[in-house]
Specification:
This protein is α/β, with parallel strands linked by helices. It has one domain (12-153): Response regulator (Rossmann fold), CATH 3.40.50.2300. Helices cover 41% and strands 12% of the residues. The chain has five helices and four strands, in the order βαβαβαβαα. α1 links the parallel β1 (12-17) and β2 (41-46). α1 crosses α5 and α2 (57-65) packs across α5. The longest helix is centred in the last third of the chain and has 32 residues, at 131-162. 35% of the residues are buried.
C-alpha cells in the first residue's frame, strides 16, 4: 500500500436517539458543523420512528441561536442496513446501546456517545422541558461531539502511523 494513502477507520457517524427528532438531529448538525475538513459525515436515526416527524421545535430554536439550521430535518428509522465496518454508531445512553445490540442483528461499532467521548454522563431526554433545558442539552451534546471529533482524529493519526 502507498504511504500517502490514508485509511480512515470510519467514513460515517450515525447518531441514534429513541425517537430520532431531537438529540440525534442536534448531534448530527453539531458534528457536521465542527468537523471542518474531515472526510466523514454524520446522519441521524431513531430507534422507534413510527412516522417521520420534524425536528423538535425547541431544538430548532436553540440550534438556530447557535447559527445551525435543523428546521428541515426529520426523524428517520434506524435499520440493519445502517451498520457497517466503516460506520460508527453513537447512541445517546448506555441503555439504548444495549437495546440496539439486542434488537439489530447486524449491529457493530455501537457506543454510547459519552462512552466514546470518554465522559461520565449520558445524553438524557429533554422532551417537555423548558427552552433553557434544551440550551443545556445543546451545550452537553456540543461538548461530547467535540470530544468525539478529537478521538476520531486520533484514530486516523494512529492508522496513518501504521502505514
Amino acid at each position: 500500500m502507498c504511504k500517502d494513502v490514508v485509511l480512515l477507520r470510519y467514513s460515517k457517524v450515525i447518531f441514534v436517539s429513541t425517537s430520532g427528532n431531537c438529540r440525534c438531529i442536534l448531534s448530527k448538525a453539531i458534528f457536521n458543523n465542527l468537523k471542518n475538513d474531515m472526510d466523514i459525515y454524520a446522519e441521524a436515526r431513531g430507534k422507534v420512528v413510527l412516522f417521520e416527524e420534524p425536528a423538535n421545535p425547541k431544538a430548532v430554536a436553540i440550534a438556530k441561536s447557535k447559527g445551525i439550521s435543523i428546521e428541515d430535518e426529520t426523524s428517520k428509522q434506524l435499520s440493519n442496513e445502517d451498520f457497517g465496518e466503516d460506520v460508527l454508531v453513537l447512541v445517546m445512553t448506555d441503555l439504548l446501546k444495549k437495546e440496539i445490540y439486542e434488537e439489530y442483528e447486524s449491529a457493530i461499532n455501537v457506543y454510547s456517545i459519552r462512552e466514546f467521548a470518554l465522559e461520565a454522563v449520558d445524553v438524557e431526554v429533554t422532551y417537555g422541558g423548558e427552552l433553557v433545558d434544551y440550551g443545556e442539552l445543546y451545550e452537553h451534546i456540543e461538548n461530547l461531539v467535540t470530544k468525539v471529533i478529537v478521538r476520531i482524529k486520533e484514530m486516523e493519526e494512529e492508522t496513518e502511523e501504521k502505514l
